[in-house]
Amino acid sequence: MTGLLRPDNAVAAILVLEDGRYVVQLRDNNPLIWFPKHWGCFGGGIDQGETAEEALLRELMEELGFSPASLKYFTKIDFDLGFCGLPILNRTFFETSVSQEQMKEFLLTEGEAFAAYPAEVLLGSYPVSPYDAFALWLHSRRNELA
Fold first, then answer.
1. How much of the chain, in percent, has pLDDT values that exceed 70?
2. 91, 10 contact by CB (below 8 A)
């Protein structure tokens, strides 16, 4: 099956458990999505009229039935897609804490699975979407950046 990938501005959640592990999603095996069968952050596109925060809250509710107490801006990655006639688009990352109890209540409605991993295990052992891998690496090493 082939089709056109439709890039747009997007948001993603860096979900952090109390022990520092990251909760990530195994993406569906669908060739019409970005990075099928890769692990990555929960999130998605920003709908017309939404702020990045509103989009992420909506996505987390849709994908997990999860409403975080707060979101903290982490970083934004820009993608210059001028080579194919598209504008510069971005993926904005927010971090939020998740308790073990909250994770037990997650209801996965998108993707094949979710799990929690330490950064070094996730990034060293599993296929992770490249932009999420970079954001997770930055987050896990944020105290070492000067």
1. 98
2. yes
Predicted TM-score (pTM) of this structure: 0.94
Return the exposure string of 57-94: e unless at least 16 CB atoms fall within 10 Å of the residue's CB, then b. bbbbeebbebebeebeebeebeeeeeeeeeeeebbbbb
Count Cα neighbours of 107 within 13 Å in the Cβ-side half-sphere.
5
Say how far apart CA 94 and CA 108 lie, in whole Å: 20
Classify strands 88-98 and 22-26 as parallel, antiparallel or unpaired: unpaired
Output the pLDDT for position 1: 45
Q: Can you tell me the mean pLDDT for 107-126?
A: 97
Which structure tokens are listed for 37?
A: 């069968």
60 close to 121: Cβ distance less than 8 angstroms: no
Q: Which helix (H) or strand (E) holds 138?
A: helix 130-140
Q: How does residue 6 score in pLDDT terms, banded at 50, 70 and 90?
A: confident
Cβ-proximal residues to 141 (8 Å cutoff; 6+ apart), any chain: none
